Input
Amino acid sequence: MSWRTVIVSSQSKLDYKMGHLVVRGRETKRVIIDEVAILVLENPAVSLTGCLIEALVEKKVRVIFCDSKRNPTAELMPHHGSHDSTAKIRYQMSWRPEMKALIWREIVTEKIRKQEGFLRDREKFTEADLLSSYIGQVELLDATNREGHAAKVYFNALFGMDFTRSANIPLNAALNYGYSILLSAFNREICMNGYLTQLGIFHDNMFNHFNLACDFMEPFRIIVDRYVCGHTFDEFGTEEKHLLWHLLGDSVIIDGNRQMISNAIKIYTKSVLDAINDGDPSKIEFFEFCEDEK
Output
């Protein structure tokens, strides 16, 4: 099982040799490629050989390219996610609107439930009670926008009444970067299952290549929120970004077992796809935080 997140920060040449990712920079380092889930290239001066690219695609490693400011700017996306991707894409294109509406209601309800729980952990009981009342009000496709109302209450409770998600501040930079990490992980799992990330169940932006991942990741945003809320971000630089990447190695409970978040994303993504295809929202496996992680 792949589990490592490898970050290459300095000018290097990356190659593939005898089952290993070889990083040749000031020092030469080797990593077993079967252990690599995500490869982050933070420096535009990094070069890759064709042999390595072929191996990364074959092993379904998510490769993320960063710009000169070390922000994710592109990804390596294979053309084929699984052997039966054609059949799965046909399923995806024929997903019934009423089933997509039911699945989205489950996802939004779970997202608000997790936000409510976190507010209670922070002793924000008034706001938590308000979110609790929203849970029972979520309609199909969230027609009354309970998600949006909950988000406003939630973020103001965590970060103050003056806080807005559009402000150009380190705190928002941390949230956005953390969310981009989750988005990348969900894109990987959707592609590995043979589906298109462009075709969502609720998100439907013609300029968004990752509509389905944006749908699926919603209940997992709380993982980033909890981390960011527990730290002070006077600035948001390289060290802070690296710490956020380590979140994928933290543990949660899903399907009765303790799993790394990266593996929980795999289990959850497969369960949502099964729920849509089988017309049974009860098949969705949501995660819970471990008691020792709260």
Observations:
- The two ends are 26 Å apart (CA to CA).
